[in-house]
Specification:
Radius of gyration of chain A: 22 Å
Strand content of chain A: under 5%
Largest sheet of chain A: 2 strands, antiparallel
Number of helices of chain A: 13
Order of helices and strands of chain A: HHHHHHHHHHEEHHH
Oligomer: heterodimer
Distance between the termini of chain B: 34 Å
Number of strands of chain A: 2
Largest sheet of chain B: none
Radius of gyration of chain B: 18 Å
Strand order of the largest sheet of chain A: 1-2
Helix content of chain B: 55-70%
Helix content of chain A: over 70%
Structural class of chain A: mainly alpha
Number of helices of chain B: 10
Amino acid sequence: MSTEQQLSRQEQQFMDKIKAEEKIEPKDWMPEKYRKNLIRQISQHAHSEVIGMQPEGNFLTRAPSLRRKAILLSKIQDEAGHGLYLYSAAETLGITREELIEALQSGQAKYASIFNYPALTWADMGAIGWLVDGAAIVNQVSLQRTSYGPYSRGMIRICKEESFHQRQGYDIMLSLVNGSPEQKAMAQDALNRFYWPALMMFGPHDSESAHSAKSMEWKIKRETNDDLRQKFIDQTASQIEFLGLEHPDKDLKWNEERGHYDSGEIDWEEFQNVINGNGHCNRQRLEHHIKAHEEGAWVREALAAYNAKKQANKSEAA
Amino acid sequence: MSDNIKAATQEYATRLGDDAVVLGHRISEWVSRGPFLEEDIAYANVALDYIGRARMFYGYAAELANDGRTEDDFAYMRDDRQYQNLLLMEMPRGDFAYSQVRQLFIDIYYNLLLPELVNSKDDTLAAIAAKAIKETRYHLRRSRDWVLRLGDGTEESHHRAQAAVDSLWGYTHELFDMDETEKLLADNGIGVDTTQLREAWLKHVSAILSEATLSVPEDGWAVRGGRIGYHTENLGHVLTEMQFVHRSYPGCQW
Protein backbone atom coordinates (compact mmCIF):
# COMPACT_ATOMS: atom_id res chain seq x y z
CA MET A 1 0.00 0.00 0.00
CA SER A 2 1.37 3.41 -0.90
CA THR A 3 1.82 6.09 1.73
CA GLU A 4 -0.95 8.03 0.08
CA GLN A 5 -3.36 5.14 0.26
CA GLN A 6 -2.45 4.54 3.87
CA LEU A 7 -3.02 8.17 4.71
CA SER A 8 -6.38 8.28 3.08
CA ARG A 9 -7.37 5.09 4.88
CA GLN A 10 -6.37 6.68 8.20
CA GLU A 11 -8.31 9.78 7.31
CA GLN A 12 -11.31 7.69 6.41
CA GLN A 13 -11.17 5.89 9.76
CA PHE A 14 -10.80 9.22 11.54
CA MET A 15 -13.84 10.67 9.77
CA ASP A 16 -15.83 7.49 10.45
CA LYS A 17 -15.16 7.91 14.14
CA ILE A 18 -16.18 11.55 14.05
CA LYS A 19 -19.39 10.67 12.24
CA ALA A 20 -20.16 7.92 14.75
CA GLU A 21 -19.75 10.50 17.59
CA GLU A 22 -16.81 8.57 18.99
CA LYS A 23 -14.16 10.62 20.78
CA ILE A 24 -10.71 11.10 19.33
CA GLU A 25 -8.11 10.31 21.99
CA PRO A 26 -4.51 11.58 22.26
CA LYS A 27 -2.92 8.41 20.85
CA ASP A 28 -5.32 8.14 17.90
CA TRP A 29 -4.22 9.21 14.45
CA MET A 30 -5.54 12.66 13.54
CA PRO A 31 -5.03 15.03 10.62
CA GLU A 32 -2.33 17.59 11.31
CA LYS A 33 -4.80 20.42 10.73
CA TYR A 34 -7.22 18.95 13.24
CA ARG A 35 -4.42 18.87 15.81
CA LYS A 36 -3.37 22.46 15.07
CA ASN A 37 -6.92 23.69 15.07
CA LEU A 38 -7.49 22.09 18.47
CA ILE A 39 -4.30 23.51 19.94
CA ARG A 40 -5.37 26.94 18.75
CA GLN A 41 -8.82 26.66 20.25
CA ILE A 42 -7.91 24.94 23.53
CA SER A 43 -4.96 27.20 24.22
CA GLN A 44 -7.02 30.30 23.44
CA HIS A 45 -9.54 29.03 25.93
CA ALA A 46 -6.83 28.34 28.54
CA HIS A 47 -5.27 31.76 28.04
CA SER A 48 -8.70 33.35 28.45
CA GLU A 49 -9.12 31.72 31.84
CA VAL A 50 -5.69 32.93 32.91
CA ILE A 51 -5.94 36.49 31.58
CA GLY A 52 -9.49 36.62 32.91
CA MET A 53 -8.06 36.42 36.44
CA GLN A 54 -6.73 39.96 36.04
CA PRO A 55 -9.89 42.10 35.81
CA GLU A 56 -11.41 40.21 38.72
CA GLY A 57 -8.18 40.09 40.67
CA ASN A 58 -8.26 43.86 40.31
CA PHE A 59 -11.25 43.91 42.69
CA LEU A 60 -10.18 41.23 45.17
CA THR A 61 -8.60 43.78 47.46
CA ARG A 62 -11.61 46.12 47.13
CA ALA A 63 -14.59 43.77 47.38
CA PRO A 64 -17.21 45.62 49.44
CA SER A 65 -18.02 42.79 51.86
CA LEU A 66 -16.11 39.85 53.27
CA ARG A 67 -18.67 37.45 51.86
CA ARG A 68 -18.23 38.84 48.34
CA LYS A 69 -14.46 38.79 48.74
CA ALA A 70 -14.54 35.11 49.69
CA ILE A 71 -16.80 34.23 46.74
CA LEU A 72 -14.62 36.18 44.32
CA LEU A 73 -11.48 34.45 45.60
CA SER A 74 -13.12 31.11 45.15
CA LYS A 75 -14.19 31.98 41.61
CA ILE A 76 -10.74 33.15 40.58
CA GLN A 77 -9.26 30.02 42.08
CA ASP A 78 -11.61 27.97 39.89
CA GLU A 79 -10.54 29.93 36.85
CA ALA A 80 -6.88 29.26 37.44
CA GLY A 81 -7.87 25.61 37.82
CA HIS A 82 -9.70 25.69 34.49
CA GLY A 83 -6.62 27.19 32.89
CA LEU A 84 -4.65 24.29 34.27
CA TYR A 85 -7.02 21.56 32.94
CA LEU A 86 -7.03 23.23 29.56
CA TYR A 87 -3.26 23.57 29.35
CA SER A 88 -3.08 19.88 30.23
CA ALA A 89 -5.62 19.04 27.52
CA ALA A 90 -3.56 21.02 25.01
CA GLU A 91 -0.40 19.24 26.15
CA THR A 92 -1.91 15.91 25.12
CA LEU A 93 -1.62 17.22 21.56
CA GLY A 94 2.16 17.36 21.75
CA ILE A 95 2.88 20.93 22.83
CA THR A 96 4.34 22.09 26.15
CA ARG A 97 2.96 24.63 28.58
CA GLU A 98 6.10 26.74 28.09
CA GLU A 99 5.43 26.88 24.35
CA LEU A 100 1.82 27.80 24.95
CA ILE A 101 2.76 30.61 27.34
CA GLU A 102 5.38 31.87 24.95
CA ALA A 103 2.77 32.02 22.18
CA LEU A 104 0.48 34.01 24.47
CA GLN A 105 3.18 36.45 25.45
CA SER A 106 4.40 37.00 21.89
CA GLY A 107 0.84 37.76 20.79
CA GLN A 108 0.78 34.78 18.45
CA ALA A 109 -1.95 33.06 20.48
CA LYS A 110 -5.11 34.92 21.45
CA TYR A 111 -7.30 35.14 24.51
CA ALA A 112 -10.91 36.30 24.70
CA SER A 113 -10.98 39.93 23.66
CA ILE A 114 -13.57 40.69 26.35
CA PHE A 115 -10.73 40.91 28.88
CA ASN A 116 -9.32 43.89 27.04
CA TYR A 117 -12.20 45.90 28.49
CA PRO A 118 -11.46 47.48 31.87
CA ALA A 119 -13.20 46.43 35.12
CA LEU A 120 -14.02 49.79 36.67
CA THR A 121 -16.63 49.38 39.38
CA TRP A 122 -17.83 46.67 41.71
CA ALA A 123 -20.84 46.17 39.42
CA ASP A 124 -18.41 45.02 36.75
CA MET A 125 -17.74 41.97 38.91
CA GLY A 126 -21.44 41.25 38.63
CA ALA A 127 -21.59 41.91 34.89
CA ILE A 128 -18.50 39.83 34.18
CA GLY A 129 -19.81 36.85 36.12
CA TRP A 130 -23.30 37.10 34.72
CA LEU A 131 -22.62 38.08 31.08
CA VAL A 132 -19.05 37.02 30.35
CA ASP A 133 -19.20 33.72 32.19
CA GLY A 134 -22.77 33.38 30.94
CA ALA A 135 -21.68 33.69 27.31
CA ALA A 136 -18.77 31.35 27.98
CA ILE A 137 -21.13 28.72 29.40
CA VAL A 138 -23.40 28.78 26.35
CA ASN A 139 -20.33 28.01 24.27
CA GLN A 140 -18.89 25.48 26.70
CA VAL A 141 -22.10 23.52 27.13
CA SER A 142 -22.00 22.90 23.41
CA LEU A 143 -18.30 21.99 23.63
CA GLN A 144 -19.02 19.18 26.08
CA ARG A 145 -19.83 17.24 22.89
CA THR A 146 -16.64 18.27 21.09
CA SER A 147 -14.91 15.43 19.25
CA TYR A 148 -11.58 15.51 21.12
CA GLY A 149 -11.85 13.39 24.30
CA PRO A 150 -9.64 15.34 26.75
CA TYR A 151 -11.22 18.66 25.71
CA SER A 152 -14.73 17.28 26.03
CA ARG A 153 -14.07 15.85 29.49
CA GLY A 154 -12.43 19.11 30.59
CA MET A 155 -15.52 21.01 29.45
CA ILE A 156 -17.84 18.77 31.43
CA ARG A 157 -15.93 19.56 34.63
CA ILE A 158 -15.60 23.23 33.81
CA CYS A 159 -19.30 23.70 33.02
CA LYS A 160 -20.29 22.62 36.51
CA GLU A 161 -18.19 25.36 38.07
CA GLU A 162 -19.03 27.99 35.49
CA SER A 163 -22.71 27.84 36.29
CA PHE A 164 -21.83 28.79 39.88
CA HIS A 165 -19.82 31.69 38.50
CA GLN A 166 -22.68 32.97 36.45
CA ARG A 167 -25.06 32.70 39.41
CA GLN A 168 -22.71 34.62 41.68
CA GLY A 169 -22.43 37.37 39.04
CA TYR A 170 -26.18 37.60 38.69
CA ASP A 171 -26.51 37.62 42.46
CA ILE A 172 -24.19 40.65 42.68
CA MET A 173 -26.42 42.40 40.13
CA LEU A 174 -29.54 41.50 42.11
CA SER A 175 -28.10 43.00 45.29
CA LEU A 176 -27.22 46.17 43.41
CA VAL A 177 -30.58 46.68 41.73
CA ASN A 178 -32.30 46.15 45.07
CA GLY A 179 -29.97 48.62 46.75
CA SER A 180 -29.56 52.39 46.62
CA PRO A 181 -30.13 54.46 43.45
CA GLU A 182 -26.34 54.78 43.12
CA GLN A 183 -25.96 51.01 43.24
CA LYS A 184 -28.66 50.53 40.64
CA ALA A 185 -27.01 53.10 38.38
CA MET A 186 -23.73 51.26 38.81
CA ALA A 187 -25.43 48.03 37.71
CA GLN A 188 -26.96 49.70 34.64
CA ASP A 189 -23.63 51.20 33.66
CA ALA A 190 -21.88 47.84 33.91
CA LEU A 191 -24.60 46.17 31.84
CA ASN A 192 -24.30 48.88 29.19
CA ARG A 193 -20.55 48.45 28.93
CA PHE A 194 -20.45 44.63 28.96
CA TYR A 195 -23.54 43.59 27.02
CA TRP A 196 -22.25 44.16 23.49
CA PRO A 197 -18.73 42.89 24.12
CA ALA A 198 -20.34 39.74 25.59
CA LEU A 199 -22.24 39.21 22.31
CA MET A 200 -18.96 39.62 20.45
CA MET A 201 -17.49 36.75 22.46
CA PHE A 202 -19.26 34.31 20.12
CA GLY A 203 -17.07 35.55 17.30
CA PRO A 204 -17.93 36.94 13.86
CA HIS A 205 -21.08 35.99 11.96
CA ASP A 206 -20.86 32.47 10.54
CA SER A 207 -20.38 33.87 7.04
CA GLU A 208 -17.29 35.78 8.22
CA SER A 209 -15.76 33.19 10.53
CA ALA A 210 -12.36 31.95 9.38
CA HIS A 211 -12.24 28.67 11.29
CA SER A 212 -15.89 27.71 11.51
CA ALA A 213 -16.60 25.41 8.58
CA LYS A 214 -13.77 22.95 9.14
CA SER A 215 -14.27 23.01 12.91
CA MET A 216 -17.92 22.08 12.41
CA GLU A 217 -17.06 19.27 10.03
CA TRP A 218 -14.58 17.85 12.53
CA LYS A 219 -17.06 18.41 15.32
CA ILE A 220 -14.57 20.47 17.28
CA LYS A 221 -17.33 23.07 17.28
CA ARG A 222 -20.84 21.73 17.60
CA GLU A 223 -22.95 24.81 17.00
CA THR A 224 -22.32 27.91 14.93
CA ASN A 225 -21.36 31.30 16.34
CA ASP A 226 -24.69 32.82 15.38
CA ASP A 227 -26.78 30.00 16.87
CA LEU A 228 -24.90 30.18 20.15
CA ARG A 229 -25.17 33.96 20.22
CA GLN A 230 -28.92 33.72 19.65
CA LYS A 231 -29.27 31.40 22.65
CA PHE A 232 -27.44 33.89 24.79
CA ILE A 233 -29.48 36.85 23.57
CA ASP A 234 -32.69 34.94 24.30
CA GLN A 235 -31.74 33.88 27.81
CA THR A 236 -30.31 37.26 28.75
CA ALA A 237 -33.36 39.29 27.70
CA SER A 238 -35.56 37.92 30.48
CA GLN A 239 -32.74 38.19 33.01
CA ILE A 240 -32.35 41.89 32.25
CA GLU A 241 -36.08 42.34 32.59
CA PHE A 242 -36.11 40.58 35.96
CA LEU A 243 -33.37 42.91 37.21
CA GLY A 244 -35.50 45.86 36.15
CA LEU A 245 -32.67 47.30 34.10
CA GLU A 246 -32.94 48.93 30.70
CA HIS A 247 -31.91 46.68 27.82
CA PRO A 248 -28.84 48.09 26.04
CA ASP A 249 -30.17 46.91 22.66
CA LYS A 250 -32.89 49.36 21.62
CA ASP A 251 -33.77 47.21 18.61
CA LEU A 252 -34.39 44.05 20.59
CA LYS A 253 -37.78 42.60 19.69
CA TRP A 254 -39.45 39.24 20.14
CA ASN A 255 -40.05 37.49 16.83
CA GLU A 256 -43.01 35.18 17.23
CA GLU A 257 -42.38 33.41 13.96
CA ARG A 258 -38.76 32.53 14.69
CA GLY A 259 -39.37 31.93 18.38
CA HIS A 260 -36.33 34.11 19.10
CA TYR A 261 -35.44 37.71 19.76
CA ASP A 262 -34.40 39.85 16.82
CA SER A 263 -31.59 42.14 17.80
CA GLY A 264 -29.68 45.19 16.68
CA GLU A 265 -26.44 44.89 14.75
CA ILE A 266 -23.20 44.48 16.62
CA ASP A 267 -20.58 47.16 16.09
CA TRP A 268 -18.05 44.96 14.32
CA GLU A 269 -15.74 47.87 13.79
CA GLU A 270 -15.31 48.16 17.55
CA PHE A 271 -14.81 44.39 17.75
CA GLN A 272 -11.98 44.52 15.23
CA ASN A 273 -10.58 47.64 16.81
CA VAL A 274 -10.27 46.01 20.23
CA ILE A 275 -8.96 42.72 18.83
CA ASN A 276 -6.35 44.68 16.93
CA GLY A 277 -4.93 46.14 20.09
CA ASN A 278 -6.88 49.33 20.68
CA GLY A 279 -8.81 48.20 23.74
CA HIS A 280 -8.13 49.85 27.09
CA CYS A 281 -6.28 46.87 28.47
CA ASN A 282 -4.70 44.89 25.62
CA ARG A 283 -1.17 45.96 26.44
CA GLN A 284 -1.74 46.01 30.18
CA ARG A 285 -3.01 42.39 30.30
CA LEU A 286 -0.02 41.02 28.41
CA GLU A 287 2.48 43.18 30.27
CA HIS A 288 1.02 42.03 33.58
CA HIS A 289 1.35 38.40 32.53
CA ILE A 290 4.88 38.86 31.23
CA LYS A 291 5.94 40.76 34.35
CA ALA A 292 4.63 38.07 36.70
CA HIS A 293 6.28 35.40 34.56
CA GLU A 294 9.62 37.20 34.51
CA GLU A 295 9.50 37.98 38.21
CA GLY A 296 8.85 34.30 38.82
CA ALA A 297 11.81 33.12 36.75
CA TRP A 298 14.20 32.91 39.70
CA VAL A 299 11.59 30.93 41.66
CA ARG A 300 11.21 28.37 38.86
CA GLU A 301 15.00 28.16 38.58
CA ALA A 302 15.31 27.62 42.32
CA LEU A 303 12.70 24.87 42.20
CA ALA A 304 14.54 23.12 39.36
CA ALA A 305 17.91 23.46 41.11
CA TYR A 306 16.50 22.15 44.39
CA ASN A 307 14.86 19.18 42.69
CA ALA A 308 18.07 18.41 40.81
CA LYS A 309 20.04 18.44 44.08
CA LYS A 310 17.54 16.12 45.74
CA GLN A 311 17.63 13.83 42.73
CA ALA A 312 21.43 13.74 42.79
CA ASN A 313 21.43 12.94 46.52
CA LYS A 314 19.00 10.13 45.91
CA SER A 315 21.11 8.56 43.14
CA GLU A 316 24.19 8.90 45.32
CA ALA A 317 22.45 7.10 48.16
CA ALA A 318 21.25 4.35 45.81
CA MET B 1 -19.88 34.95 81.08
CA SER B 2 -18.91 37.90 83.28
CA ASP B 3 -18.83 41.32 81.67
CA ASN B 4 -15.08 41.76 81.76
CA ILE B 5 -14.46 38.30 80.32
CA LYS B 6 -17.03 38.95 77.65
CA ALA B 7 -15.43 42.27 76.69
CA ALA B 8 -11.99 40.66 76.63
CA THR B 9 -13.24 37.78 74.49
CA GLN B 10 -14.78 40.20 72.04
CA GLU B 11 -11.51 42.08 71.77
CA TYR B 12 -9.57 38.84 71.37
CA ALA B 13 -11.86 37.64 68.56
CA THR B 14 -11.50 41.04 66.90
CA ARG B 15 -7.71 40.86 67.06
CA LEU B 16 -7.64 37.39 65.56
CA GLY B 17 -10.05 38.62 62.89
CA ASP B 18 -7.76 41.59 62.17
CA ASP B 19 -4.78 39.25 61.78
CA ALA B 20 -6.72 37.10 59.35
CA VAL B 21 -8.22 39.84 57.20
CA VAL B 22 -4.98 41.78 56.82
CA LEU B 23 -2.90 38.71 55.99
CA GLY B 24 -5.65 37.46 53.65
CA HIS B 25 -5.51 40.81 51.88
CA ARG B 26 -1.76 40.59 51.42
CA ILE B 27 -1.92 37.02 50.14
CA SER B 28 -4.71 37.89 47.71
CA GLU B 29 -2.41 40.48 46.13
CA TRP B 30 -0.51 37.53 44.65
CA VAL B 31 -3.43 36.23 42.62
CA SER B 32 -2.44 36.41 38.90
CA ARG B 33 1.11 37.32 39.93
CA GLY B 34 2.49 33.93 41.01
CA PRO B 35 5.60 32.36 39.44
CA PHE B 36 3.35 29.76 37.75
CA LEU B 37 -0.30 28.92 37.59
CA GLU B 38 -0.32 26.32 40.37
CA GLU B 39 0.91 29.01 42.74
CA ASP B 40 -1.89 31.36 41.75
CA ILE B 41 -4.30 28.61 42.76
CA ALA B 42 -2.49 28.02 46.04
CA TYR B 43 -2.43 31.72 46.88
CA ALA B 44 -6.13 32.14 46.14
CA ASN B 45 -6.81 29.10 48.28
CA VAL B 46 -4.78 30.30 51.27
CA ALA B 47 -6.21 33.82 51.01
CA LEU B 48 -9.68 32.31 50.99
CA ASP B 49 -8.90 30.38 54.18
CA TYR B 50 -7.86 33.59 55.91
CA ILE B 51 -10.86 35.59 54.72
CA GLY B 52 -13.03 32.72 55.96
CA ARG B 53 -11.26 32.84 59.30
CA ALA B 54 -11.73 36.61 59.53
CA ARG B 55 -15.46 36.15 58.94
CA MET B 56 -15.72 33.62 61.75
CA PHE B 57 -13.78 35.70 64.27
CA TYR B 58 -15.53 38.95 63.37
CA GLY B 59 -18.87 37.20 63.32
CA TYR B 60 -18.25 36.08 66.87
CA ALA B 61 -17.01 39.52 67.94
CA ALA B 62 -20.21 41.01 66.49
CA GLU B 63 -22.32 38.45 68.31
CA LEU B 64 -20.66 39.29 71.63
CA ALA B 65 -20.90 43.04 70.97
CA ASN B 66 -24.62 42.60 70.30
CA ASP B 67 -24.97 46.20 69.17
CA GLY B 68 -26.15 45.65 65.61
CA ARG B 69 -22.68 45.58 64.08
CA THR B 70 -21.84 42.86 61.55
CA GLU B 71 -18.61 41.18 60.45
CA ASP B 72 -18.32 43.84 57.74
CA ASP B 73 -18.51 46.68 60.26
CA PHE B 74 -15.48 45.20 61.96
CA ALA B 75 -13.55 44.84 58.71
CA TYR B 76 -14.62 47.96 56.85
CA MET B 77 -15.55 50.60 59.39
CA ARG B 78 -12.52 50.67 61.67
CA ASP B 79 -9.39 52.74 61.12
CA ASP B 80 -5.70 52.19 61.42
CA ARG B 81 -5.55 52.96 65.16
CA GLN B 82 -8.44 50.63 65.91
CA TYR B 83 -7.02 47.67 64.03
CA GLN B 84 -5.06 45.39 66.34
CA ASN B 85 -3.39 42.97 63.95
CA LEU B 86 0.20 41.90 64.46
CA LEU B 87 2.58 44.02 62.40
CA LEU B 88 3.92 40.97 60.56
CA MET B 89 0.55 40.58 58.82
CA GLU B 90 0.58 44.05 57.28
CA MET B 91 4.09 44.03 55.84
CA PRO B 92 3.96 44.36 52.02
CA ARG B 93 3.79 41.33 49.78
CA GLY B 94 7.44 41.75 48.79
CA ASP B 95 8.97 39.13 46.51
CA PHE B 96 8.06 35.45 46.54
CA ALA B 97 10.70 34.66 49.15
CA TYR B 98 9.47 37.41 51.44
CA SER B 99 5.88 36.17 51.29
CA GLN B 100 6.86 32.53 51.84
CA VAL B 101 9.16 33.28 54.76
CA ARG B 102 6.46 35.41 56.41
CA GLN B 103 4.03 32.57 55.80
CA LEU B 104 6.39 30.06 57.38
CA PHE B 105 6.75 32.19 60.52
CA ILE B 106 2.98 32.58 60.77
CA ASP B 107 2.15 28.99 59.90
CA ILE B 108 4.43 27.64 62.61
CA TYR B 109 2.93 30.12 65.05
CA TYR B 110 -0.63 29.03 64.28
CA ASN B 111 0.37 25.38 64.34
CA LEU B 112 1.29 25.98 67.97
CA LEU B 113 -1.48 28.40 68.88
CA LEU B 114 -4.50 26.68 67.35
CA PRO B 115 -4.03 23.28 69.05
CA GLU B 116 -4.17 25.21 72.34
CA LEU B 117 -7.15 27.30 71.32
CA VAL B 118 -9.02 24.12 70.44
CA ASN B 119 -9.14 23.47 74.18
CA SER B 120 -10.61 26.88 74.96
CA LYS B 121 -13.47 26.94 77.43
CA ASP B 122 -15.14 29.22 74.93
CA ASP B 123 -16.92 26.83 72.56
CA THR B 124 -17.02 29.22 69.62
CA LEU B 125 -13.30 30.01 69.74
CA ALA B 126 -12.58 26.30 70.10
CA ALA B 127 -14.75 25.50 67.08
CA ILE B 128 -13.11 28.16 64.91
CA ALA B 129 -9.68 26.88 65.94
CA ALA B 130 -10.68 23.31 65.08
CA LYS B 131 -11.61 24.36 61.56
CA ALA B 132 -8.58 26.61 61.06
CA ILE B 133 -6.10 24.01 62.26
CA LYS B 134 -6.71 21.76 59.27
CA GLU B 135 -6.04 24.60 56.86
CA THR B 136 -2.99 25.73 58.73
CA ARG B 137 -1.38 22.29 58.57
CA TYR B 138 -1.67 22.41 54.80
CA HIS B 139 -0.35 26.00 54.72
CA LEU B 140 2.70 24.94 56.68
CA ARG B 141 3.45 22.04 54.34
CA ARG B 142 3.53 24.53 51.49
CA SER B 143 5.52 27.34 53.16
CA ARG B 144 8.01 24.86 54.61
CA ASP B 145 8.56 23.23 51.21
CA TRP B 146 9.06 26.59 49.58
CA VAL B 147 11.51 27.89 52.17
CA LEU B 148 13.55 24.70 51.77
CA ARG B 149 13.53 25.03 47.98
CA LEU B 150 14.42 28.70 48.01
CA GLY B 151 17.04 28.47 50.72
CA ASP B 152 18.71 25.47 49.11
CA GLY B 153 17.92 26.31 45.48
CA THR B 154 20.09 28.76 43.56
CA GLU B 155 22.43 31.44 44.84
CA GLU B 156 19.85 34.09 44.03
CA SER B 157 16.98 32.31 45.76
CA HIS B 158 19.18 31.68 48.80
CA HIS B 159 20.11 35.33 48.96
CA ARG B 160 16.50 36.46 48.63
CA ALA B 161 15.29 33.99 51.26
CA GLN B 162 17.96 35.07 53.72
CA ALA B 163 17.15 38.74 53.09
CA ALA B 164 13.49 37.97 53.82
CA VAL B 165 14.34 36.17 57.06
CA ASP B 166 16.51 39.07 58.15
CA SER B 167 14.01 41.78 57.36
CA LEU B 168 11.02 40.02 58.90
CA TRP B 169 12.68 38.72 62.05
CA GLY B 170 12.17 41.90 64.05
CA TYR B 171 8.40 41.61 63.62
CA THR B 172 8.16 38.10 65.04
CA HIS B 173 8.78 38.99 68.68
CA GLU B 174 5.41 40.54 69.31
CA LEU B 175 3.74 37.28 68.30
CA PHE B 176 4.62 36.11 71.81
CA ASP B 177 3.65 39.21 73.80
CA MET B 178 0.67 39.24 76.15
CA ASP B 179 -1.25 42.25 77.43
CA GLU B 180 -3.80 42.39 80.27
CA THR B 181 -6.66 41.34 78.00
CA GLU B 182 -4.90 38.24 76.79
CA LYS B 183 -3.57 37.37 80.24
CA LEU B 184 -7.06 37.51 81.66
CA LEU B 185 -8.31 35.15 78.95
CA ALA B 186 -5.37 32.78 79.32
CA ASP B 187 -5.88 32.66 83.10
CA ASN B 188 -9.49 31.74 82.53
CA GLY B 189 -8.77 28.99 80.04
CA ILE B 190 -10.24 30.94 77.13
CA GLY B 191 -7.23 32.38 75.33
CA VAL B 192 -3.76 31.03 74.67
CA ASP B 193 -0.67 32.09 76.62
CA THR B 194 1.59 32.85 73.65
CA THR B 195 4.62 33.52 75.85
CA GLN B 196 4.70 29.74 76.26
CA LEU B 197 4.94 29.20 72.51
CA ARG B 198 8.13 31.06 71.65
CA GLU B 199 10.55 28.31 72.57
CA ALA B 200 8.82 25.70 70.44
CA TRP B 201 8.39 28.20 67.64
CA LEU B 202 12.05 29.11 67.64
CA LYS B 203 13.07 25.48 67.67
CA HIS B 204 10.81 24.61 64.76
CA VAL B 205 11.77 27.69 62.73
CA SER B 206 15.48 27.14 63.38
CA ALA B 207 15.29 23.54 62.26
CA ILE B 208 13.68 24.47 58.96
CA LEU B 209 15.97 27.43 58.33
CA SER B 210 18.96 25.25 59.06
CA GLU B 211 17.76 22.55 56.67
CA ALA B 212 17.26 25.31 54.11
CA THR B 213 20.90 26.41 54.68
CA LEU B 214 19.63 29.74 56.05
CA SER B 215 20.80 31.34 59.24
CA VAL B 216 18.70 32.47 62.18
CA PRO B 217 19.23 36.18 62.87
CA GLU B 218 20.52 37.43 66.21
CA ASP B 219 17.82 38.65 68.55
CA GLY B 220 17.94 42.29 69.58
CA TRP B 221 15.93 43.99 66.88
CA ALA B 222 12.24 43.91 67.77
CA VAL B 223 9.38 46.10 66.57
CA ARG B 224 6.16 46.02 68.56
CA GLY B 225 2.78 47.72 68.61
CA GLY B 226 0.17 45.89 66.52
CA ARG B 227 -2.00 44.87 69.46
CA ILE B 228 -2.29 48.48 70.65
CA GLY B 229 -3.03 49.82 67.19
CA TYR B 230 0.43 51.32 66.75
CA HIS B 231 1.09 50.22 63.18
CA THR B 232 3.65 50.58 60.44
CA GLU B 233 2.69 52.94 57.62
CA ASN B 234 1.68 49.93 55.53
CA LEU B 235 -1.65 49.29 57.21
CA GLY B 236 -3.22 52.61 56.23
CA HIS B 237 -2.78 51.75 52.58
CA VAL B 238 -4.22 48.28 53.01
CA LEU B 239 -7.30 49.76 54.67
CA THR B 240 -7.61 52.55 52.12
CA GLU B 241 -7.84 50.02 49.34
CA MET B 242 -9.89 47.45 51.19
CA GLN B 243 -12.49 49.86 52.55
CA PHE B 244 -12.87 52.24 49.61
CA VAL B 245 -15.95 50.78 47.90
CA HIS B 246 -17.68 49.89 51.14
CA ARG B 247 -17.23 53.35 52.61
CA SER B 248 -18.06 55.20 49.39
CA TYR B 249 -21.64 53.95 49.56
CA PRO B 250 -22.54 54.14 53.25
CA GLY B 251 -25.14 51.79 54.62
CA CYS B 252 -25.49 49.72 51.44
CA GLN B 253 -25.92 45.98 51.16
CA TRP B 254 -23.70 44.15 48.68
